[in-house]
Amino acid sequence: RIYGDVETALVARMAFGTWRLIESDLAREFDVSRTVAREVLGRLQQRGIVKKDQRAHWYVPGLGPEYVSELYA
What we know:
By secondary structure, this protein is mainly alpha-helical. It is built from four helices and three strands; from the N terminus they run H-E-H-H-E-E-H.
């Protein structure tokens, strides 16, 4: 039920650069469990909207030329 709202919020902020997502903060913001937040982030990762770094932290990449090329490759 929260996927669309989360996706819209993240995509709207991508133009402002790369930033980290904290699973527990996302869950608290949308009043859901961390499991639900993790599932939403996993779906967003499959679509290329969020990524995980080497330390398994979720992040939203900024809309730079490399990322845009990767999205449309």
